[in-house]
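Step 1: inspect the first sequence and its tokens.
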Amino acid sequence: MTLNSTAGLLKRARRLHSKHQRDRLDQFLVEGPQAVKTALEARAKIQGLLISEANQEKMKSYIDGSIPFEIVTEADLLEVCNTVTPQGIVAICESIDRQISDLQNSNPLLMVYLDQVRDPGNVGAIIRVADAVGASAVLASKGTVDIHNDKVVRSSTGSIFNIDIVQDLSVDDLKVFAKNQEMQILVTSADGQLNLLDADRDLIKPTIWVIGNEASGVNPEIAKIADHSVSIPIFGRAESLNAATAAAVCLYASTRCQRALKG
């Protein structure tokens, strides 16, 4: 493996911790062998790779001759990854934003809409579980954390490349899209009209689940257009579930009902 020091990749990677620079360059960072492998398998547009000196031999399989790369020190990779234990490789990828028009006429059965979900770990985990259940897309409102944030990407463990994601979708656009696709909108609420455990008849329908802000819950404007509010029963002493856990429970509940209907 030879050093390609002309690409200036390390300098560029350092800039990509800033949302302003990610938006300006239309690029973001992907950390770790599994996430980079998923990006390659998904044919993501990878602009370059940073590989630590200690992992040159181990990461040979990620170099196909067409992707620029740099060998960097452990200290440099630590700075770029912003984690305690970097995993030896970082990719610089082109941003993967989709438009809601890309999803028209796709006959989706299941999606999730993130309503100003601010915690990057929650957003990454929700993307991962949406991928796991085979959902068609993740939709996000303005005010939801940028999906290209390094913590979101890391928490998704590569799922960000496996599922369509639309950012900055307004309530009006959500309403129109749901109507055009004949999908119901369900919101989670502590005092919901339906109990999740008794809602199988409703869960078989094509559904967009809305997961609200960690502190304030679902936007009242979305609650107004929702077909139903749904409560997740808690039998122990926990006060509530966090956004990612609530999303996982709801998405798997819908998936179970929809798959049972298919037989």
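Step 2: inspect the second sequence and its tokens, then contrast the two.
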Amino acid sequence: MHYHQLEANIYDKVYAGLKADIPFWQNFAREKCGEQGEALELACGTLRVMLPVAEAGVRVTGIDESPYMLELAQKKIDAADENVRARISIQQGDMRSFELSRRFDLIYIPFNTFGILTTSADQLAALASIKKHLAPDGVFALQVFFPDVTRMHGEVLKRWQAEMDETFADGSRVMRDSVRGVDTRKQILSVTWRNKEYQDQILVREFITDLDLSYFFPRELEHLLARAGFEIVHFWGNYERQDFWKMNEPWIQIVVARPISDL
């Protein structure tokens, strides 16, 4: 799955308020890469996370499958400070099969994006590509949501629910509602959004967006990473790096892993 043009065009507006994870990735990338190392973000999109990481002083490369997201990303790079531009690069690619000529101190996938891989085969393919591109002391980090089993059944899944209705400084307005479904056997959350775009209060566009997203339970992540040849270094339940297993109510899963040594 990758974002098409209509979806890409509203992405930054839909997620304009999503900033809580950015300091975490900035700090973590600085710790792992310093000034001399390099990070790789998979499914970098419009650089919501990646540009702030580069602004924090980290050299970072981004890969995304969507040419429309990358077009918007390039505009942000062109508008950035010269020093930031020197630290950042992007290219089109698939996280399951990318081929780059160098290795990285950190490879990361923020904001649930690993879940767009909806089969075990695709997940393992991505992990194999990641493992191949890690530097000798490099680590892989991903963030996914912690599944709430109480929300996986019932009438709430059958109702359309309002998600946003926001007007922006350029006179545009985005309205969005969604309906969700859950396949508990395949562990896939399916979301359909109805999107409406207005300009100066005139409806200019409406369209449907669909997304299938895998969800992962903690022990499952442990087994998946072990099967792919990784060992877990950290398992955190929030952006403050609290131990997931010691928290009463963790709401996200941040896993940091490294390849298991062949020695």
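Step 3: confirm your contrast with the notes below.
DSSP finds seven helices and eleven strands in the chain. The CA atoms of residues 49 and 91 lie 16 Å apart.
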